[in-house]
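Async update (no meeting this week)

Hi team, since we skipped the sync, here's where things stand on the single-chain job. The sequence we agreed to prioritize is pasted below, unchanged from the tracker. I ran it this morning and attached the output directly underneath so nobody has to dig for it. Comments welcome in thread, and please keep replies under the output.
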Amino acid sequence: MVYTKLNKIADISRANNDYLYPAYTNYIELSATKGLVGMIKKDGNISNRNAIINPKIKINPIYFNIALQNALPKFINKYLTTINLQLDVVGKMEIAYDPNMEAQENAVKTIIQIDNMIEATKKTIHDTQNFKKILLDKMLVTGE
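Output:
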């Protein structure tokens, strides 16, 4: 595992509302932040409320997003003084990553499998709640 400051491995800039960013572009919310790290999955725009993070090293973009998500809470606790993060301090975020591309791919596959299981469980819960509602509605007799 390698530990380094974000500005050593990535270019950081303010997003441009009018620019079409490529798929898998990572960003960090700056304005009125709630600690959001995002990544667009297809080409698109990103609000200028965000900082664009473009890695200068060879790294899986989904793995990079996970590494950013892991690093952000500690960073926010240290550097967030108002409701906004300042662009010039984002580079001070300490990020940990495995430089081995195979390890990155394995980590991404595992996270995707876990996310898929979570989504399937949420769907099962939702479907079960709907079924329960239907059954309860049929049990109740109205006076019509």
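Quick observations from my side:
Strands lie at 2-5, 10-14, 26-29, 37-39, 50-55, 94-97.
The longest strand covers residues 50-55.
Reply here if anything looks off.
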